Every structure is written in structure tokens, then in C-alpha cells.
Amino acid sequence: MTKSKSTEIASLGEFGLIDRLTSRLKRRNPSTLMGAGDDAAIIDLGEEVMLLTTDMLTEGIDFDLSYFPLKHLGYKSIVRGVNDILAMNGQPTQVVVALGVSAKISVEALDELYEGMETAAEELGVDIVGGDTTASMNGLIITITATGRAKKEDVVYRSGAKEHDLICITSNLGAAYMGLHLLEREKRVLKDVENPEPKFSGYEYLLERYLKPRARRGVLDALREEGIRPTSMIDLSDGLASDLRQICHKSQCGARIYLERIPIARQTSELAEEMHIDPVIAALNGGEDHELLFTVPLDMQEKIMRLGLVDVIGHITREESGVVLVTPDGEGIALKAQAFDR
Amino acid sequence: MTKSKSTEIASLGEFGLIDRLTSRLKRRNPSTLMGAGDDAAIIDLGEEVMLLTTDMLTEGIDFDLSYFPLKHLGYKSIVRGVNDILAMNGQPTQVVVALGVSAKISVEALDELYEGMETAAEELGVDIVGGDTTASMNGLIITITATGRAKKEDVVYRSGAKEHDLICITSNLGAAYMGLHLLEREKRVLKDVENPEPKFSGYEYLLERYLKPRARRGVLDALREEGIRPTSMIDLSDGLASDLRQICHKSQCGARIYLERIPIARQTSELAEEMHIDPVIAALNGGEDHELLFTVPLDMQEKIMRLGLVDVIGHITREESGVVLVTPDGEGIALKAQAFDR
Questions:
Q1: What mean pLDDT do residues A302-322 have?
Q2: What is the structure's pLDDT at A47?
Q3: Minimal CA separation from A301 to chain B, in Å
Q4: Which CATH superfamily is domain A158-192+203-334 in?
Q5: Model-level pTM?
């Protein structure tokens, strides 16, 4: 199957695989305003556009059913899908669900999964309008495809950041990553224990951030009310370093973010210390935060500060300055994304 | 995970699982005209609607990479997705692709998959507008989500069949099923052979029908030109028996189809005989035909016959008559769908 020349996917690097696969794709329908390359595709509806995005979660990679309750998994999968619509500044509306189901999954298990999905749908005001259930040889697979609507002029792209823009995030970072590490540790420690009682006390917030992330529809509504329109935006799923580099890559700009301004929750720092992990690495590269990273014009500084819903962690620079993390002593460190691993 | 009460999915029967899972889903957006229950969901756009459908294929269940060329697999996955839009009488427009990729898949293999997808997209006039690539622990997974447009009054549902309507299909049946059997046989026979040379001679048509099914966009265009509007329609994916029962279930009607009118290709009969399979079973229950099954009013009989593009295999009856296959000697056999197995 792999023929004579065989290239490992990892070797293509951060932006390589998607660019390579999508570069051959043509547009034939005038309604296709934008294809791959942002959080969602854009389909012309006249005054409005429809946003369309798809996201696959596979057992063993994206979740471990030995500690991931199905209700939460359903909830999180909807949040992940809808977040990509929010990251384009769209109003999420409909979702379709494709499931690959292995023999070990019972009807009651699927009920729980759907219950969690419907809870998230209720909170986010979206409708689950159908799907496909197929058999899977190896584990549970969930693909969520989400749609949303936006006025054309309201759509926010990854590519719109301008020099001097402020870089904002909607919550502290690294908590989901530490929640995952905690779950993995307890699984490891209690592997051969008959009635395992995992120790999560004091770290409930981290578990919640990993198992049940909240979509930030409310923050976007508040920005809209205040007349603040982001110049660029992305869903924080791969980690701040990688996602900020995406914004800079698409906007042809650089960035300076300040280490002491990156919010890290107390539980995140505490568990990181306990597990000998650098909390800054968790915040920069952990991923799965499912918060929003966006930029606003510098003259919005006062407004956005007064709103009190986001943290301003730095600003956009010229492309040649690169993407830089500034330490408290003023040193600038070039931010590298992690190796492509998914 | 399965708790105290554990119900096997198979026990819910033919229409049970989807009905159970989707019965709890609410509609919150006025733009949601129809959710689960037909080939695609329907989203209100004003005069037009957008159709939305998702379809997952998993390695080991839906395809075997040891004999399924990736180019064909890409092609077929797009056809499958787009067929659900056609089965609602919509014009397919955009597609998004979510891939789960195991470590054994090289970049060149993904290139081939995308090449096949783009070939199908070109033939069907749709745009691949993005997607998601994630890691998979176990095998390749492909989820295709397709969208399309239609005028509201043009949408054809599974539920519109009326007594006396004619039942039509767009090609002979059972060929894909026999193609799959041929591939499986040669794989089995040549399992331990060093340089295997599978014998496909004389059965190329069956392989093509399984590996590279064609979407019937052309037939629908011809019907439209002739002013023939189907009263109900479904994508023939689970087999004629099951899919006709779906139409009857949704339309609250019965059906009589005539055995001698069900078209079966010569190669299908020949291989079936060689492999001791009843060709009628292949045609009724084989599945994967990816043709269209639809009904038209009785007064369209002459028009549809003159068109010469479809076979009329029977007619719609009252619900209490059931779904019946009439043998050449006039005997009526109640059509049962196969057990739910996916």
C-alpha cells in the first residue's frame, strides 16, 4: 500500500500535512467562499454565510473509556465541534454525529453518550439533527460536524491579526492537560488494585477542565454587545504555542507574549509541581484547553480590560520578529510548536 | 461502563437504535426543519434548504485495505456521502472529510486517498472544503459529511410514497455484494501465496460496482428535465429489502415487488452460481449498491418507461398488505430485512 516512496506523516511538520492534502482541492461551486485552512469552511448564503467544520475523536488517542465517563465524553465532543464555529465568530446552529461503535458498547452506554451530547446542545443552543452509526472493529469513534451562521462582515478569520493588536485568551491554560495527567497517574497507580479509589481531592477543577470543558459562547456575546470585534481568532485546542503560531502564520505577523501574564490556575501549578512538570509547558503546549485565542485592535484596550472576561497576554508584531515568549527578566524565547503528533 | 442493565445493540432491531437515540433530541433553532430520520437533515435557508448528512467508514468493517485501493476508497467515500444528498433530490455542493489515520498509513497513501476523493468531487461537481486529521490506534477511519441545496418544494422524503405509486431503481442489484465476495474469496485462497495473482477475469464489472460505485446524479437530472418528481426516495445502501421497508415504514404503506423484474447482471448471476449463493438474496439483502430507490405516481408510467434509465420493479400498496416479494408463479413472500448488524 505504501509503495516505494513512503513518507512518515510526522516528517511533514506543523502545517505540512493539511497544506499538502488540501492544496490539490479545487473549488467548483460559487457558494464555496473558503475551504480548508481556518476553524471552519465558509459557504455563501447571500447576506449570511454558513460555517461548516468536522472533528474526529478516537478511543485510545483522544479519550480513555476506563476513566472518561460517557456522559462527559458526549458533552465534550459537542463542545469541541461547536468551538470551531465560535472561533469564526459564528452562531452555532446544527450538529450531526457519526459514531463508530465496537461490540463492547451497550445501548445504555450509547444512551449516556447521547445524554451528554444533548446537555451540551441545550447549553449551547444547537440542535443535533442526525447522524450515522456504524460498527467499529477497535474502539469508539466520534465525528462531530457542526454548522453555524454569521453575517458576512462578522466572520473572524485566523488571518486578520495586525501589528499592535492585543492578544487575548478566555481563561487560564494548562488545566485540562494537568487533569489528563492526573487521570493517567491514578489509572497507572491503581492498575492492579481490586476496588480502586483514585485520589482526586483538591484537583476537581483540573478534572472538570479536561472532562467537561465549557464553550465560551458567553464571552463572544459580551464582546458583541460591547462592540468589540476580534481581528483574528482560533480555538485553543493544540496549545497556546501552536495555536498562536497558526494565527501568526495565517496573518503573516509575529507576536510577543509575556510569561507573567499567562494565567495559570493554582491547582494547575500545584499538581504540576507535585508531578515535576513545568506549569508553563503545560500552559504553552498542553493543549485541549478549548478556550478562545483572539486579537483585538490596540484602541480596544480599555474596553476589553473593563469587560474583565479575558486576559491580555501580549501583542502582535511584525512577521520578522517571530513568535516570542518574554520572560520576567526581559529575555525573549522563540516559541516553537510541538512536533506534529496527531 | 455498561452498568447493571446492558442491552446489546442488535436486540433493538431494524429501526430501534436510531429511533431510541434520536427520540430525546430537541429542536431549538427555527432553522432546523428536519433532524434524524431521512437520508439527510434539512436546514431552512428561506426559499431554499440546506441538506446535511454524515457517514462513517471504518477499516475492517466497511473496507479491507489489503485489496481496496486507496484511490477507489477515497472515490467511494465521497460517492456514499453525496448519494444521501441526491436521495433527498438535492444538488450536492460541499463536503468535509474527517480522517483517523493509523501509524501504518504514509503520506503517499493519504495522497492517493485524497486523489480519489477529488476525482469523485470533480465528477459530482462538489467541493471538498476542509476536514480534520487525527491519529487512530486501530486502522483507517473516514467520515464524510456532505451538504447540498434544494428548493423547499423539490425535497423528496422517504415518507412520501402513496398507494399505487411505481417503485423504481436506477440499476441492477447485488453486483457490489458479489464483487465483495469475489475479493474476499481471492484473499482467502491466496493467503499464503508469495506472489498472489488473484483471478478476477470475467468479473471486472462486479469489482467496479463494489470498489467504485457511481452516483446517479445524471438520472435525477433526467427526471427533472422530464418533469418527473419522485414521491419518495432513499439511497440503496443496506439492500433492497431493508431500504424498501424503510420507505414503507416512513410512508405507512406496503409494497409489492416482482422477482422477475428485479434486474440482476449476468456477471452477478454467474459468480453467485459459482459460489453457491442465491443471486436473489444478493440483490435483496446484499447492500452497498449505492443506487437510488424511488417511487413515482402511477400516471408517470409511460414517461418513466420511455426515459429508459430506471427499472420499475413493483408498486406501493396499503400498509396492511405488508412488504411482499411476488415470485414468478404468483406466490407472495413477506420481505424481512436482515438483522441489524451495523
A1: 96
A2: 92
A3: 34
A4: PurM-like C-terminal domain (3.90.650.10)
A5: 0.93
pLDDT greater than 70 at residue A50: yes
Question: CATH number of B158-334: 3.30.1490.190, 3.40.50.2300, 3.90.650.10, 3.40.50.1820?
Answer: 3.90.650.10
**Residue B43, SS3?**
strand
What pLDDT shows up at residue A340? 38
- Contact criterion met (CB < 8 Å) for A130 and B35: yes
Could you report the per-residue pLDDT of A171-183, keeping only the tens digit for each? 999 999 999 999 9
- CA gap B316, B205 in Å, rounded: 31
**Confidence at residue B23, expressed as pLDDT on a 0 to 100 scale:** 82
What is the end-to-end Cα distance of chain A in Å, rounded? 21
Chain pair A-B, CB pairs under 8 angstroms: 292
Q: B10-152, what's its fold?
A: 60s Ribosomal Protein L30; Chain: A; (3.30.1330)
In what side-by-side order are the strands of the sheet with A166-169?
A232-236, A291-296, A166-169, A311-317, A254-258, A323-326, A332-334
Would you call A62 an interface residue with chain B, using a CB distance cutoff of 8 Å? yes
Nearest residue, CB atoms, B36 vs list A3, A24, A129:
A129
Cross-chain Cβ contact B130/A53 below 8 Å? yes
Select the residue of A24, A98, A141 nearest B118 (Cβ to Cβ): A24
B64 touches chain A (CB under 8 A): no
Phi, psi (5° rounding) for residue A258? -110, 125
Of B24, B40, B94, the CB nearest to A52: B94
A residues 148..207 contacting B (CB < 8 A): 149
Mean pLDDT score across all residues of chain A = 92
pLDDT for position B164: 98
* A235: chain B residues, CB-CB within 8 Å: none
Q: Nearest CA to CA, how far is A80 from chain B (Å)?
A: 12
**In which band, very low, low, confident or very high, does the pLDDT at A11 lie, cut at 50, 70 and 90?**
confident
Domain range list for chain A = 15-152, 158-192+203-334
Strands (E), chain B: 32-34, 41-44, 48-58, 91-101, 127-135, 141-151, 166-169, 232-236, 254-258, 291-296, 311-317, 323-326, 332-334
Residues of chain A numbered 241-260 and touching chain B (CB < 8 Å): none
Q: What are the residue ranges in chain B where pLDDT is below 50?
A: 1-4, 339-342
Q: What percent of chain A has pLDDT over 70?
A: 96
C-alpha closest to that of A235 among A284, A197, A291: A291
Shortest Cα–Cα distance, B16 to chain A (Å):
10
What is the ipTM, given to two decimal places?
Answer: 0.91
Q: Which residues of A touch B60 (CB under 8 A)?
A: 137-138
Asked if domains A15-152 and A158-192+203-334 share a fold, the reply is no
Residue of A nearest to B147 (CA): A52
B10 touches chain A (CB under 8 A): no
Which tens digit of pLDDT belongs to each residue from A230-245? 999 999 999 999 999 9
Specify the amino acid at residue B244: L
A115 to chain B, any CB pair closer than 8 A? The answer is yes
Percentage of chain A with pLDDT > 90?
A: 82
Which residues in chain A touch residue B114, judged by CB atoms under 8 angstroms apart?
21, 24-25
Task: Provide CB contacts within 8 A for A89, sequence distance 6+.
Answer: A150, A154, A155, A156, A220, A229, A230, A233
- Which CATH fold topology does A15-152 show? 60s Ribosomal Protein L30; Chain: A; (3.30.1330)
How far is it, in rounded angstroms, from Cα A17 to Cα A266?
37
With cut-offs at 50, 70 and 90, classify the pLDDT of residue A152: very high
The pLDDT tens digits for B152-188 are: 999 999 999 999 999 999 999 999 999 999 999 999 9
Q: Do B145 and A98 touch (CB under 8 A)?
A: yes
